[in-house]
Design brief:
- It is built from four helices and four strands.
- It is globular, with a radius of gyration of 26 Å.
- The longest helix is centred in the first third of the chain and has 21 residues, at 7-27.
- A hairpin with a 2-residue loop joins strand 1 and strand 2 (120-128).
- It has 153 residues and is an alpha+beta fold.
- Helix 2 (48-64) packs antiparallel against helix 3 (68-78).
- 41% of the residues lie in helices and 22% in strands.
- It starts with 6 loop residues before the first helix and ends with a strand.
- It has a four-stranded antiparallel β-sheet with strand order 1-2-3-4.
């Protein structure tokens, strides 16, 4: 047999809900709490700038995870042949990762568009290391092929 709530149980339930709402309001500093917008990332396979950001995000993930095979495949896909040769020479001479210009892996990265023109797009890549120290590398990609053609420290 179904029992309907009595006036008393309904009143107790409403009081509990009102009390919880008041507590939430008070904990929020007496102001209406608003949720921050969730982070988002967007891009396009047609844009050379997006390719720079995609490469750095994927490459850092692969190196961080110790997946050298994937890191090599990413380099082969996103980087021009001349840049790949240049990076191998730089790495032999400096005993460090030429893409990251370091021996370790950054904890965060940020790619910022610098400009585009003459068939190229330019970006700065800010790498954040432990202790919140940062370094910046400057990256150039070809607008036609979308391949990264230059990385400078």
């Amino acid at each position: 047999m179904l029992q309907l709530p009595t006036k008393r149980t309904t009143s107790v339930a409403l009081t509990a809900v009102a009390g919880a709402a008041a507590l939430s309001f008070a904990l929020a500093g007496g102001t209406a709490a608003t949720a921050a917008a969730p982070p988002s990332v967007s891009g396009s396979p047609e844009g050379a700038f997006t390719r720079i950001a995609d490469f750095y995000g994927s490459y850092i993930d692969a190196v961080y995870d110790g997946d050298g095979r994937t890191a090599d495949q990413l380099r082969a896909f996103y980087l021009s042949e001349p840049l790949q040769r240049e990076l191998r020479q730089w790495e032999d001479a400096n005993h460090a990762n030429g893409v990251l210009r370091a021996q370790n892996v950054p904890l965060k990265w940020k790619v910022t568009s610098v400009d585009s023109g003459m068939g190229k797009t330019n970006a700065s890549v800010t790498l954040t290391w432990s202790g919140d120290t940062t370094t910046t590398v400057y990256v150039q990609a070809d607008l036609r092929t979308k391949k990264i053609t230059s990385i400078r420290g």
